[in-house]
Specification:
Elements lengths: L1 H34 L5 E7 L2 E7 L2 E2 L5 E6 L6 E8 L7 E4 L1 E3 L2 E6 L7 E10 L2 E4 L6 E5 L5 H26 L5 H27 L12 H18 L7 H15 L8 E4 L4 E4 L8
Parallel strand pairs: 3-11
Antiparallel strand pairs: 1-2, 4-8, 5-6, 5-9, 7-8, 9-10, 9-11, 12-13
Helix pairs in contact: 1-2, 2-3, 2-5, 3-4, 4-5
Length: 285
């Protein structure tokens, strides 16, 4: 009877760990998605007493110019799109937005891979004028198209890597054998991050690897740090289980993957035409 009860408790403990790990991983993925610099920027404005909400593009992977479209049904409201090269001390170029039914639209000129523009939208009705986002420019990055059959598996495997990392760490924390889950975590980070990640990077920015030792791309370096953390955990668990290293690897992985995706990512330097990392670009001007 005691053995049966212990088995039930063990299964219950594992089930609770899995449920908590799934919820934690989903929360982290949503946070990354909503806070990342590629997610559309949400903003709102009040003009003529009417409140409008907008989503402004911050990434574009099409071949031609990038259409910037906002839904604003009032036909008396006119719009102007202003843009310039990111972080360049030059004047904004102004483009009138064209009305198409209930939308106002204008196009940003296409940039090379990792090229960035900053843009503002100004709305007018009579003598009233409003600049979206309180006048702060929105930054948009251009990239190459990544085929879905490559991008989706990459995202899915990295999601599983975060999930398995959390499960392995909590298994170790609650004294549940975690060796198998640790090895699965290491394998998924390797496949999703160090094999498929560079393939995605090649399609998007024509570079296989922009992390250490070749650059400071934060996304690549995050993956590298997570992989090293789990290699260390595996090393100290080769002969006998050492759960503290597994917990430490989970904490490191959780910490680095809480950083928004693509932050300080690859960026085209307009002065040289070379792709560098956004993390160091501000220090070059």
């Amino acid at each position: 009877m005691k053995k049966i009860l212990n088995r039930i408790l063990a299964v219950l403990k594992k089930t609770l760990v899995w449920i908590f790990a799934v919820l934690l991983t989903i929360s982290a993925a949503i946070y990354q998605r909503l806070t990342g610099p590629t997610h559309p920027q949400r903003t709102q404005a009040v003009i003529a007493g009417q409140n409008y909400e907008f989503k402004l593009l911050r990434t574009f992977d099409g071949e031609g110019d990038c259409p910037i479209t906002i839904a604003i049904p009032d036909p008396e409201i006119k719009g102007t799109l202003e843009y310039k090269l990111f972080r360049q001390n030059i004047d904004f170029i102004r483009l009138p937005m064209v009305r198409d039914g209930g939308n106002l639209t204008a196009s940003l000129p296409h940039q090379g891979m990792a090229g960035k523009l900053e843009y503002k939208i100004i709305l007018n009705k009579g003598n009233e004028q409003v600049t979206l986002n309180n006048g702060t420019p929105t930054v948009i990055r251009f990239k190459g198209y990544v085929p879905k059959f490559i991008l989706i598996p990459h995202i899915l495997i990295m999601f599983l890597a975060m999930l398995f990392s959390n499960v392995a760490g909590f298994f170790a924390l609650f004294k549940i054998p975690s060796i198998k889950m640790m090895k699965i975590t290491l394998a998924t980070i390797f496949v999703g991050g160090l094999i498929m990640g560079p393939i995605v990077q090649k399609y998007a920015f024509n570079e296989l690897w922009a992390g250490v030792p070749y650059g400071w791309d934060l996304t690549d370096n995050k993956t590298l740090i997570a992989f090293i953390a789990w290699v260390i955990a595996w090393w100290f668990n080769r002969k006998q289980e050492s759960r503290y290293w597994v917990v430490a690897a989970m904490v490191v992985t959780m910490g680095i993957f809480s950083i928004p995706h693509s932050l300080f990512g690859s960026q085209l330097d307009p002065a040289t035409g070379k792709i560098i990392q956004g993390m160091i670009l501000p220090y070059l001007y």
